[in-house]
Amino acid sequence: MATAVKQFHEEEAIGKTYDWQIARRLLRYLRPYARTLVPALLLTLILNALRILQPKFTQYAIDWYIVPHRLGGLRWLALAFLGVLLLTFILSYVQTVLLETVGQRVMYDLRSELYTKLQRQDVAYYDKTPVGRIMTRLTSDVDALNELFTSGVIDVLGDLVMIVAIAALMFWMDWRLTLVTLLTVPMLFSVTMWFRRHARRGYDRVRTRLARINAFLQEHLSGAQIVQLFNREEKARAQFHELNDDYRRANIETIFYYAIFFPLVDLIGAIGTALIIWYGGWRVMQSAPFTQTLSLGALVAFIQYLQQLFQPIRDISDKYNVLQAAVVASHRIFRTLDQPISITPPTVARKSGRARGKIEFERVWFAYNDEEWVLRDVSFTIEPGQSVAIVGHTGSGKTTITNLLMRFYDVQRGRILLDGVDVRDWDLRSLRQNFAVVLQDVFLFSGTIESNIRLGRDDITEERVRWAAREVQADRFIERLPGGYKAEVRERGAGLSVGQKQLISFARALAFDPAILILDEATSSIDTETEQLIQKAIERVMRDRTSLVIAHRLSTIQNADRIIVLHHGQIREQGTHQELLARRGLYWRLYRLQYSDRTMHAELKDALT
Amino acid sequence: MDDLRKFARYFRPYRRSLIFGTFCVFASVIIGLLVPLIVGHAVDDLSAGVTWAKLTRYALTVLGVSAVSGIFLFLQRLILIGMSRHIEYDLRRDFYAHLQRQPLSFFHSHRIGDLMARATNDLSAVRQLAGPAIMYSLQTLFVILLILPLMLRISVRLTLLLFTTMPLVSLTVKYLGQQIHLRFEKIQDFFAQISARAQENFTGVRVVRAYAQEEAEIEAFNRLNRLYAERNLSLVRISAAMRPLLQFLIGLGFMLIIWYGGALAARGEISVGQFTEFNLYLTRLIWPLIAMGYVVNLYQRGTASLKRINAIFAIQPSITDSPHARAHPPINGRIEFRNLTFRYHEHAPPVLRDINLTIEAGQTVAFVGRTGSGKSTLINLIPRLLDPPPGTVFVDGVDVRERPLAQLRASIGYVPQEPFLFSETLAENIAFGVAGASRAEIEWAAEVAGLSDDVREFPAGFDTLVGERGITLSGGQKQRTTLARAIIRQPKILILDDALSSVDTYTEERILTRLREVMRERTSIIVSHRVSTVRDADMIYVLDEGEIIEMGTHDELLARGGEYAALYERQLLEEELAAS
User: Fold this and answer.
1) Chain B residues close to A96, C-beta within 8 Å
2) SS3 A15
3) In angstroms, rounded to a whole number, what is the distance separating the alpha carbons of residues B67 and B53?
4) Which of B281, B313, B345 finishes a domain?
5) How many CB atoms lie within 10 A of CB A368?
6) Inter-chain residue contact A123 with B219, CB threshold 8 Å
7) Which residues does chain A have within 8 Å of residue B55's beta carbon, measured at their own beta carbons?
8) Which part of the chain is the ABC transporter domain (chain A) (predicted)?
9) ipTM
10) CATH topology of domain A442-513
11) What domain count does chain B have?
12) Which of A221, A363, B182, B207 sits at 20 to 30 Å (Cα–Cα) from A463?
């Protein structure tokens, strides 16, 4: 448990030292789109220049036309302004589209890379990592990265340029008034910083308290009956009120900061305006007709520039938070991408293609965790075409044998051979293609019946799908479904019975025509008719191929060429059904216990007498 | 509309906030609008010549007016948004209280995830309806009402010119905003499909690997991935227009002022100051115009969410105290089933058929039978987790439906099949159904339930947190904790629904022995698959397909050689095997 807790914390805590490495790695993802990105950045600069131009129009309107009472040419000034507006509109539209296009492309690449990596990742990885966490990598973390493009973090570069440009322009227009005006900037800056700090802390508090409310609700709705049975309604309500109230208080506290921030920014704006009127006004009066140091128009333009200066300063810290979140997310994504894969195809495959089907286990030892051996010194051989049944109590290691055979895991000691070649020397893909498995818990994907039989293999024709279904007699129920083979299968096969799902998985196995069949029979009880259907399906699929069966059905066991009895990870007995019964050992007892349900009572008596 | 009328009730306690908040909005708007007026005058004075002192007075007035307006702005947000948080609190409180009164059947027909979505997303949309939507509507309303005469007084034509073009800003926000939102939601739905598919793949990883489907899966995922990126890009083509378009429309307003207003000023029909004033009014109009479109969207989303929440409020809890329920004398523990036939729905086949049996107070009675034979249903009728038909289930001779629910349930200790614990400490979990239980009582209950040895191993003993944030208990430990939780109530009736299935037989034996002492004089009802659990019961009933097929003591049933005897034989074998 200690290691689990540690891993959990590592998951959350991200060191800041990696920031640069991450930035550099992120740039690699941008490189393919440089042709889109560079124009977008250029546009950002041009747009800022255009925005800075706008107050100038007001200035010129006042200085050139209004004050001297001149009408001619004002129309052209207005039209020029309209032109600037249109240009700004078009360019900023193009700029946004370009930037977001890059964002979408990069997200596509990242998702694709992640998914590919996850498909190659070991089965053991999935044992250790909750699916929810994997999903977070693929969804929210990738989204957090996209925020870089959509929320205008890229614009920050432009914003900085703009602040400097506006300040320079103001200095050029009147450096003394500029100095006075810029007095408000440190005020605004510190107010913004103060606000961000509190708002962020408040936001964190709101979020954690909401999470607590949700956790409580989730738990108390799932356990609503327990609450009622134990007369805890009052207490639960009181607990909920407390959480609800905590949340409300956190929110109201946050409102306070927002409520104070916006008026304060307005007030600082007013201070700026007042300063411009006061000092600038004085300067306008000072300027005698011949020593025009500051015009009235310039004064009005100054007021507008002040507004333009405020916006980016207010935004920068906001965007900084987005940047931080994106860095954390990319760190997590990169770590998933960097996770080593231990089960890889051999550099030089000694064998590939279709196997004959000879399986050998040579003194195999295996443990999922260090030294907790699940298999100890297991050896056996299955000749091509043979069928072998493995029986044993729960936890005896039956399923592990099939997992190792398909190289979901690698053995710690000993080796496993297919057609005389170590499975680790087989081309991984063709090794697995030699098997078809029918698992106890049939896994159906959402799609159609047909797509569940064919899976992703396009070379399996529609005829073959139908043939396979017919062979295992699944055709009858499939054809009765609305849509037949095209009938929709909902998530995990909801709406189909256990028996029907099994028949589909038999059809799937048959359609794939594997050299070796691995079958983990279901223990669940189904009605007699379906039971007979499944029985026949099993026989059909097993015909003409090597099969390894984790057996629960009496008939499967009886018809097997050989039975291996596993007990606590070791082979305890081997032989045919009759041989083992005659021995009256472990198999005999196991057999009586597990296979003596009501329908087989009679058979059992026959066998024992 | 009906939904809104119901919702209006929630404003009643905050009428004063609403009135005062409205006043603050009004005050901040009217005072804030003085600033353009002052600046305008200052500019006029500047072009005419002005004294230093007058200039200083202008500057200070701008500051003072802004400060006063700022105070009202502060109050307005604090009061109105604060009010929406109070209403959110009330609504959430009622929502939870309502859910908590719902019976088992409600939770079978409503997924927890769906209820959670209503308690979070929908509630938050409704909150925005009660807060920001109201605040911004008021603000927009007052700004437009007050600014209009101020502008008209300068120039009717210029005002009209602006008011024919500027609503485009609101319309853009409303329509474009809505389009973007709709498309965005559609794309999110599509993304949910992709995630569901990916999740399916990760869950079924073994099948994917076994059939060597990785390449096909990657290809299929990338196809969806590409489609998703493309759909997003087509949305970008629309959404990217929003900000530039707003900026353009607003700029258009300024352009009109320069063109037409500039001409008016040049001709001397308005002063330079009034020209500046107009510019500043437009600046003040920008946000309210944007807000108007935004509010319409908030309203639409909020009312839709309100409907979803009200739909849940409309479901009355089906199991409640009957109007005739009176407090009967304390419960002794005699239970009777009379001609009980039970079905989940009117047209469903019966789950229990014609059950007639009496459990005397103080007896221990066991029910065995296969999964689906109706055992759990039968015992769920006693604490009214399910409602039996009238006149079929009696406790101490009184129909369970006629007893106050609280009294009935308080006399029952129930240990469910699935052990459900809360994310609290072990002690709190055990004392769950007893107010103010002492540590000694908790220890006693843990002792009886055979949990004491385990507790000693826990990092903080009884104060160890259980659940996600604490330690993970084993199945057996969970079951024993739920048993302790029932025992500590010292109930007249103890119900164990296959509650010791994850406990090994040796421990079970010990627990049952202790339990027998504790439960002397009290009624115990045990449901189990295991013969060892039920062996010593005063009476054992074997259920099959909702009917009692065998009854008797352990010895009697063994002698009969029926179902029960077969079960016994199998379990003996199992023990034997486990020992080898």
Assistant:
1) 236, 240, 243-244
2) coil
3) 21
4) B313
5) 12
6) no
7) 277-278, 281-282, 285
8) 359-593
9) 0.85
10) Rossmann fold (3.40.50)
11) 2
12) B207
